[in-house]
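Task: sequence design from structure.
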């Protein structure tokens, strides 16, 4: 019995999924899946209408929810306390600082008690707020509702807004008259969530999601016409590529961005001829990435072409942006990872990361002179918002650390003057001096040093007695920022050390950090996370019987892998929407994300070697009789990214193969998708639920 199991007494008998063996043979290897039946055959239709879920599957999910509630029923009061604390740190009637754009400034606000954002505008220099879109009103009567924002046309008369009311990420677009607040008759369904206006405001472009939930087509919609009459602009026939459509600050061009996780291609549509075929910039070349921003008569291109692993910035003429005309502007520097770039009339701006810490760099386009915006804390986060206008010297950025609430600045790129616009308010009070933020380096088995960001109260004893929530992700090159979170204070105030392991698979230490945590190197991600746990124990921050591991999505796969590899090193595990049935999913090319994700994980259909890589770590395939700690898995019924059946099957197999371990708990949100519930306070309820599990397992209150 795991040492934490004693905390869960007198539980009812857990649900037992019936075993219905299905065999699959690939590359001479036969696998048997006893729980494949939990995958709904009609999943495409069910994502749009959850009532179509098979009754037997629904009954099993509801039984799992009932068992989970029995196991965690004693945390109900704690969940309410945590929720009240978290809500008390949020300014309910909060408002963003509006961003200037033409005669107006646009922003968002929340009202007291409201769950959804309201989008508003004022005159450029301030004044009365005009609410353009009231998210709370639009969400009335819906179990789930998520806005994709509102985007105004060039003359500010109309706005495209989108919503998803199932959690399946099929967005419906509407067009609103911004003066009257009335919606036009136009209704565009099954989109990726946004539209890009043509300069005249009489039409827009959008991407359509196909039946397998892939944005495979770009359409041009003319206002007043039915969706069936929309013109197909471009179709991507390779299911391995994502596609998006965007616009430029100068309204000169429509970008069609086609990419997977390591290769990209752009096609451009000049807004002077909306009927023309999109022009190819540089044909896709495996492993070569590039992205574009307009700079008047030139394009600036961020790329890793030519072996620039940590990226460089090139320039090319607006009328001839092909690769043969690319000229270097910002050279490649190993260890200086350029993350994104923006261009304005007189300045080029980019966000970079060195040694795990971000900087904003500004270049004067005329002189080439550069200067940087940086900060001094051991670990911090920067957000580059830029500007909504091309003719500007002022950009906007945000700064925070794990102890410092978010600060929003306007920055004059010419005078280098920094103006503090807003500091995040914590209504219930927050004294940064009560807390410590640190960054330590954990030695990995192969000698690499893994950054770990820490937050804890100054009075927390560092003698191994403190519980720890250790968070990790480690995929797709995504870096988890060391930013301020009001929610984690509820853990720190209970004596927890809150830790983020910046493991391989992210780009925390450059592009190579990502490459060495994907494909055949994926197990580095898991070993790094375990190394972080080992280091925190060795340095007295915590002990193994007090570490609760947490990760979501690809980070949920991390949770499944470390549970198999080192279950004795964790007191509990929280796996949110966990990608745990990796091999089965990567063998199913009908699922939304499978073909685009082969460059991240491998293609087990085509490659025997890649099949074996994945089979070696896929959490579902490697469950065995081990001393697993208590484990909480969370899923969403209409989640198109990590389908509900992955954690459902995983929990069933854990119970079957490790009956003395656990307990293994599954919570399925029956009216939500990948991100959980959509409202800002509804989301806090889910975080309070997860933290209550962690606190219970740690033996705290």
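Answer:
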């Amino acid at each position: 019995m795991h040492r934490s199991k004693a905390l869960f007494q007198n539980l009812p008998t857990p649900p037992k999924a019936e075993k219905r063996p299905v065999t699959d043979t690939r590359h001479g290897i036969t696998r048997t899946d006893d729980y494949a039946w939990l995958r709904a055959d009609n999943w495409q239709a069910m994502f749009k209408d959850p009532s179509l879920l098979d009754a037997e599957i629904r009954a099993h999910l509801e039984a799992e929810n009932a068992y989970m509630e029995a196991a965690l029923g004693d945390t109900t009061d704690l969940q309410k306390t945590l929720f009240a604390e978290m809500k008390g740190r949020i300014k309910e009637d909060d408002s963003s600082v509006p961003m200037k754009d033409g005669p107006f400034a646009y922003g968002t606000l929340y009202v007291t008690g409201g769950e959804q954002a309201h989008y508003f505008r004022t005159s450029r220099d301030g004044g009365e707020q005009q609410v353009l879109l009231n998210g709370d009103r639009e969400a009335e009567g819906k179990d789930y509702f998520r806005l994709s924002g509102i985007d105004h046309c060039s003359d500010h008369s109309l706005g495209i807004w989108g919503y998803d009311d199932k959690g399946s990420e099929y967005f419906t677009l509407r067009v609103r008259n911004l003066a009257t607040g009335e919606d036009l008759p136009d209704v565009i369904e099954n989109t990726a969530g946004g539209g890009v206006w043509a300069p005249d405001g009489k039409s827009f472009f959008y991407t359509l999601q196909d039946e397998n939930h892939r944005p495979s087509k770009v359409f041009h919609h003319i206002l007043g016409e039915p969706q069936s009459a929309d013109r197909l602009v471009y179709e991507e026939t390779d299911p391995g590529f994502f596609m998006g459509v965007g616009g430029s600050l100068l309204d000169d061009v429509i970008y069609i961005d086609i990419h997977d996780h390591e290769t990209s291609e752009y096609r451009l549509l000049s807004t002077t001829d909306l009927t023309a075929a999109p022009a190819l910039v540089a044909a896709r070349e495996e492993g070569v990435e590039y992205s574009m921003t307009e700079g008047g008569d030139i394009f600036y291109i961020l790329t890793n072409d030519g072996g620039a692993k940590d990226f460089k910035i090139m320039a090319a003429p607006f009328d001839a942006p092909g690769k043969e005309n690319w000229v270097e502007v910002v050279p490649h520097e190993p260890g200086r990872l350029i993350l994104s770039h923006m261009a304005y009339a007189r300045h080029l701006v980019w966000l970079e990361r060195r040694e795990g810490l971000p900087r904003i760099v500004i270049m004067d386009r005329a002189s080439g002179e550069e200067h940087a915006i940086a900060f001094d804390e051991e670990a911090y986060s920067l957000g580059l918002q830029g500007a909504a206008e091309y003719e500007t010297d002022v950009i906007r950025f945000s700064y925070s650390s794990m102890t410092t609430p978010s600060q929003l600045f306007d920055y004059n790129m010419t005078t280098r003057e920094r103006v503090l616009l807003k500091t995040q308010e914590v209504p219930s009070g927050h004294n940064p001096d009560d807390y410590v933020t640190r960054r330590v380096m954990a030695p990995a088995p192969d000698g690499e040093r893994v950054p770990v960001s820490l937050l804890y109260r100054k009075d927390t004893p560092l003698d191994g007695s403190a519980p720890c929530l250790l968070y990790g992700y480690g995929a797709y090159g995504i870096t988890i920022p060391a930013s301020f979170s009001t929610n984690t204070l509820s853990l720190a105030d209970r004596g927890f050390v809150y830790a983020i392991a910046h493991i391989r698979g992210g780009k925390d230490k450059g592009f190579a950090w990502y490459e060495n945590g994907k494909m055949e190197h994926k197990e580095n991600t898991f070993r790094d996370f375990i190394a972080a746990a080992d280091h925190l124990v060795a340095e007295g921050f915590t002990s193994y019987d007090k570490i609760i591991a947490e990760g979501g999505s690809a980070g949920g796969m991390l949770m499944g892998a470390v549970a198999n590899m080192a279950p004795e090193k964790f007191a509990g595990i929280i796996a949110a929407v966990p990608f745990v049935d990796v091999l089965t999913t990567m063998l199913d090319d009908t699922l939304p994300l499978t073909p685009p994700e082969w460059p991240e994980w491998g293609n087990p259909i085509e490659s025997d070697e890649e099949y074996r890589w994945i089979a070696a770590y896929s959490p579902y395939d490697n469950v065995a009789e081990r001393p697993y700690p208590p484990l909480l898995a969370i899923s969403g019924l209409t989640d198109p990214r990590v389908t509900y059946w992955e954690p459902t099957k995983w929990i069933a197999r854990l119970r079957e193969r490790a009956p003395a371990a656990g307990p293994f708990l599954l919570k399925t949100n029956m009216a939500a998708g990948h991100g959980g519930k959509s409202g800002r306070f509804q989301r806090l309820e889910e975080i309070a639920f997860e933290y209550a599990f962690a606190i219970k397992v740690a033996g705290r209150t």
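The chain is about 20% helix and 35% strand.
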